[in-house]
Amino acid sequence: MMLKTVQSVNLLLRFLLELAILAAIAFWGFSAWDNVGLKLATGVGIPLVIAAFWALFMAPSARRRLRSPVRHVAELPLFGAGVLALAAAGQPAAAAVFVLLYALNKTLMLVWKQ
Q: pTM for the whole thing?
């Protein structure tokens, strides 16, 4: 019973990390530029493109979900973009925490075949 709870928490962490990618890129996009057009393009546009890609190809309910191991490889640049966005926005501690949480989560997901 305890393992099931921890596995559920790991899936919740995964979902929160996926949302954190979008939030990190939006944060970077709105803080990186003085131009309002660039703020909107990067702070709203890039997260929308990533969310659409995730919904179409990565989400568990996606009709065209990428198969493993392609899906595992495809997620690396997405999570990496979140980390880089935090670092570029002057949040190196948040970027480090993001990397650690992603590594822990991904390891557990692979071990538990989630």
A: 0.93
Q: In angstroms, rounded to a whole number, what is the distance separating the alpha carbons of residues 25 and 80?
A: 11
Give the span between the Cα atoms of 43 and 74, in whole angstroms. Answer: 22
Tokens of 29: 């996009």
Query: What tokens does 24 get?
Result: 């990190």
Q: Distance between CA atoms of 83 and 28, rounded to whole angstroms?
A: 10
For 6-54, write each residue's pLDDT tens digit: 999 999 999 999 999 999 999 999 999 999 999 999 999 999 999 999 9
**Under a CB-based contact definition with an 8 Å cutoff, are residues 29 and 37 in contact?**
no
Helix (H, G, I), strand (E, B) or coil at 61: coil
Identity of the residue numbered 65: R
Are 11 and 114 in contact by the 8 Å Cβ rule? The answer is: yes
